[in-house]
Amino acid sequence: MTGVDVRPGSIVVGVDGSTSSTRAVAWAAEQAALERRPLTLLHTIGAAATTWAGEPGVDRGAVLDALVTDGHALLATARAAVLDHAPGVDVHECLVLGDPRGALLEASSDAALLVVGSRGRGPLASLLLGSVGVALTRHPACPVVVVRPGNPGLERHGVLVGIDGTQHSAGTLEFAYRQASTRGLPLTVMHCPAVDLAAAAATDVERDARLHEARRLLARTVKDMADKFPDVPVHTELCRGRPDECLVREGSRMHLVVIGAHHGGAVSGVLFGTITAAVVEHASSPVAVVPAPV
């Protein structure tokens, strides 16, 4: 059993043996192969899993040994799946006794990308997207991808990124461009202001002026990034309505939805942080949450 030992710049994926975890491992393996990065399989044995080991008559050491053995077996199965899917990936295993949230957050400080499933296993099935998932998407040290179940029969059309027009969106936008370039996919850039520009306008003239300025901002933002990624076909959209609903709806036909995680107490950051949580909870496609500069 080890501490959180992650090779800097690697992709880290949470492993718990659930169907959701299996999807996350497959997604992470493909990503590691595309980016030519090492992949770390991380399994945690949390306090909740060992609480009953302290009951009278229970051999706590034997219980922990069994949990560790089961954890290594889960990691071995995940490793085999990765190497079957992407034989050239450099795979590492990490088994940690401790809080899943803390272990994954600690891993994110050295990782290039953290990948998790949207639901866990057994009686803790909602834990990952509950306390653990919320913490990861609110305070990540690196981008976090939550692999949602998706709609298997639906044709996919690339990467969708939501931006709010502030400087916080720069890293989110670049991450989305890089994902589209790496995967050879088109990119849709959706401008999602904290308020509905049309609904907030007092008059038709004011509404048209705000929409015109939003289009100019969106065009300028995309132009600045297009020179860096000339291979990425780009389509732009203005969000009409609630940003989370727009992103979830448009994201249902995408390979990946990218959105930012805001730090700090500014109103736009708080609102967009709420939007981020809603998208992670309700999207059907994988969602990447990119931390904003502190």
UniProtKB/TrEMBL annotation:
Source species of the chain: Nocardioides ginsengisegetis
Residues in UspA domain copies: 11-148, 159-291
Entries under InterPro entries matching the protein: Rossmann-like_a/b/a_fold, Universal_stress_UspA, UspA
Tree of life domain: Bacteria
Descriptive protein name: Nucleotide-binding universal stress UspA family protein
Family indicated by similarity: Belongs to the universal stress protein A family.
SUPFAM superfamilies from the UniProt entry: Adenine nucleotide alpha hydrolases-like (SSF52402)
Taxonomic classification: Bacteria, Bacillati, Actinomycetota, Actinomycetes, Propionibacteriales
